[in-house]
Amino acid sequence: MNKILKRMAAGILTGALCLTAFAGCGSTGSGSQGGSSADGETTGKKFVIGVAEAQANDEVTTRRAYFENFIAPTYNVEFIFSEVLKDDAAVKTFIENCIDSGADAIIDFKSNSSQMARLCEENGVVYTVQGIPDMAPDLMEGEFPLFSGWSGANNDHLADLFRNWLEENTSADGSEGFLVSTSLASQGNVQHIEVSRAILEGLQEKYGLTYEQPIEDLVYVSETTNVANDKGLLITLYPGSPNKDTWLPGISSLLQSGKYKMFLSSGQTYNQTATVVNEVEAAFGIDIKVASIAAFSTTLDTAFSTLDPNGNPSVDFVTVKPSSVLNASVFAATYNALNGVIDTACRDENGKPANFRFNMISISSPEELAKTKGWDDAEAGTWIAGKEFVDQMLVTTNPDVTAASINELMASVDVDSIAEMMG
Amino acid sequence: MSKWQDFRRKHVLLMNTLFTVAVPLTVWLVMELLDYSTTGLHTMNSMVDWTTLMRNLVSSFCFALGLNCNMALGRMDTSTGSQMFLACILGGNLALSLNLGGVGVLVFSMLLGMVAGAFVGFLFINLRILPMVLGLGISLVYECISFSANNQQGLNLFGKPGVGILSNRLFIIGITVLIMLVMTYLFQYSPFGYKRRAIQGNQKLANDAGINIYVNALLCYTAAGALVAVAGVFDTAYKSNLVPVLGMNSNSTVFSNMFPMAVGLWLAKKSNPVIGILAGSLSVQFLVLGLAKFTNIGMSDYMQTCIKYSVWLVFMIYRMNEDKIQLIKDKRARVALAKATRAQRAAVAA
Description:
The complex is a heterodimer of chains A (423) and B (350).
Chain A: H1 2-21, E1 47-53, H2 58-75, E2 77-84, H3 88-100, E3 105-108, H4 114-122, E4 126-130, H5 137-141, E5 147-153, H6 155-169, E6 178-183, H7 190-207, H8 215-218, E7 225-226, E8 235-239, H9 247-256, E9 262-265, H10 270-284, E10 289-294, H11 298-305, E11 317-320, H12 323-338, H13 342-345, E12 355-358, E13 361-363, H14 366-371, H15 387-391, H16 403-411, H17 415-421
Helix pairs in contact in A: 2-12, 3-4, 6-7, 9-10
Chain B: H1 3-10, H2 12-39, H3 47-71, H4 80-97, H5 101-127, H6 131-148, E1 155-156, H7 169-189, H8 191-201, H9 203-208, H10 213-239, E2 241-242, H11 251-256, H12 258-267, H13 273-292, H14 301-320, H15 322-349
Antiparallel strand pairs in B: 1-2
Helix pairs in contact in B: 2-13, 3-7, 3-10, 3-12, 3-13, 4-5, 4-6, 4-10, 5-10, 7-8, 8-10, 12-13, 12-14, 13-14
């Protein structure tokens, strides 16, 4: 009896172990599997696209829902999603697994690397990344005919958002002190690099600062660093991962010094730091303003509806990624490349891989948040980048599409235009 | 016998108490000196630090105690981290959906933790797979379940009604005392505890003596599940949310809590495992909070983590060589005694 039980349990566990090992490789449907399709065929076959993810948060959940529930059935594609990929080695393994599973393309939200592009190139697979070209010069300069380009936040626009908010919410002399969490920028996280840079540029423009070190170097610091500047403003960069035991006590310790009244985060950390910020505010009787990155979610609703000891929302300002717009652009670049128009729809005027930019949305009050209700709502399936929007980006529905026209469309997305689109 | 030795012999309880208290006190003192001399800040700088200390202490204490439930009997359960994630995410969200507040989150998480732990125990006693190997397999399964539960959102306690109690200092002290009392009774004075210690001494002899070692193992796993769930709830109260992980990342929680457990078991030789582990956890928390103050002079959290685990390494090296040090001490004592005896005899002969 025991032996039978043992064998049964061993079988179940072994099966569970195998399933777990491939848990990150779940796909949306059984659809047909095909070989490389970057040869220009538009046979109506189902393309298989691998999606490499770096995080597991609201944004990723929303993206998955967008790809699985909207893009996949609408455009007859199939997605293979990764689990959280910690480093380039994990991305490489994921891509190899996707290739073995017959993937036609890879959308990479983790790396921005010529190594991955080369791997895809060798296997005839289209490669698209989220990021900016500055972070991957070798990818920009190299010969990668199947690399369809980058999609990322419009950094200038993001810096404008931060600058405008800082303009209205900071003192004229900047004496309140700024604590900037650079999160995983030092480890090459593209989003954190972009936002850290935007914050530093925003502060630079607001106060007319000259930093002693270039911003490109500052965003990569791996130690807590006071940014030396000509006006002597206190700007402290705090890198690190919220997953580490020592990260949150470090934030708490810095805030308790009473030198910082502004906490600006390049990552989506407003939720993790909320308790610590509230406790410091209550204990020291100070008001710390919090600005962070966010995604439309119940977490964000809670943050704006929960008041701190000073009667303000626990987060004062967030820049929200219109997730579906980013996802639509990476999908469009990939899909157009798979449909054989990589040279027109995925290349800039110099023939280089295209650099697609989208604008972030800023929210600084519960009232503004209320206006965005229903935007990129995964449960309701209401997407900013709906069918009409995506159709304008795809060669199959808009044969005249070019990289420039996609970028024009993306640039037109702002709060007003979204409100109009969403009715 | 010297006066000091005589005093020690007569005041065993006092000496044992001093030994147990001395370690956390020394860690605090060292960190205080280092913090104040380098950053101008105290290790415990404000009430915020005290709240943080208490919340993290109860979390670390419960987790280390949970590990000790099985570790002392030679079973290293590497799935405790994933049990914590599973119990808190499922139990916590269930309690929140029923508007039961912080106490509900704690109770439901504990119940789910007991179920999760008991299931691992059930598998262990039936399959007899090496506990560590079984733990790794179970980790992957539990992680996947907690990752897919609640739409991958984990457990979010910030801004939820009634969860503020989890950061209330009196409540934390109350829970800590309650856990200490229950676990002291369970480990030291209950039939389960007697049997557990008999098994700890020699499993085969215990079995031959009629102790049901399987039931005992099942109870140990169940208790461990409940304890790590409590740890998870207080950890979430501090970090506002518990983000689910995959790929055996939950094991990092297990290994990071082995430090307080190791220190605690060392201290337990002069008290009992519950008090020892509490003192060990307190020592580690003083170290972590003290190191956090160095952030003000530019030390990154990576460096702090590096120092923390280097201290652990040094401690383990000491632990591994403690007998050698004792051997040298004993040898010196023997030599001294021999010399004294020889001198005494020589004096008598003269």
